[in-house]
Amino acid sequence: MTLEDADTCDNHTHEMHPVASALEQVLDVAHRRGSLTVGVYESAKFMDRDPDSVVLCVLAADPEVNDVALNIHFTLIQAFCRDNDINILRVSGLQRLSEIVEPMIGPSSEPLDLHCILISIHHNNPWKCSSLEEVFNYCAECRSRNQWIPFMSLMDW
């Protein structure tokens, strides 16, 4: 298996929710490539340093959580992403997101801040991923239906 084979995503293996499955695969490939940034503060620092490499911003919060500070962060991040043509995907289901991301990153003494996750592709080291294209297509489809910030629930699968 070559590095290129290892970085190729095939989202036809999951049956439940194709975009949620595609997102899980994208997170896995991004982590293996060192292209995953986790945390609101870490994401803000990365976007300030290299906004051109960010291709997807995942904002996660469960609907029952009403955190004013988090909403302010989300508003600022969303504005930055729109200004820099970065795809945004809002998700609910922090528990499921934690089940996906924490095994990739490993144990930590502090809880992970999964409210903001960035996927970046460095122009000198591009990668192809059909699952990433599927997430992009979902975002574009939502925007075409005037849902400017696409939303998906991870709790449904």
Number of strands: 5
Order of helices and strands: HHEHEHEHEHE
Biggest pleated-sheet summary: 5 strands, mixed
* Distance between the amino and carboxyl termini: 30 Å
* Domain tally: 1
Strand order of the largest sheet: 1-4-2-3-5
Helix content: 40-55%
Give the name of the CATH architecture: 2-Layer Sandwich
Beta-strand percentage range: 15-25%
Q: Give the CATH superfamily.
A: Ribosomal protein L30/S12
Structural class: alpha/beta
Instruction: Count the DSSP helices.
Output: 6
Give unreliable regions as ranges: 1-16
Computed CA radius of gyration, to the nearest angstrom: 15 Å
The CATH topology? 60s Ribosomal Protein L30, Chain: A
Structural description of this entry:
The protein is an alpha/beta fold. The chain has a single domain (17-153), classed as Ribosomal protein L30/S12 (60s Ribosomal Protein L30, Chain: A). The protein has 6 helices and 5 strands; from the N terminus they run H-H-E-H-E-H-E-H-E-H-E. Helix 2 (18-33) runs parallel beside helix 5 (94-105) and helix 2 (18-33) packs across helix 6 (130-144). Residues 1-16 have low confidence and may be disordered.
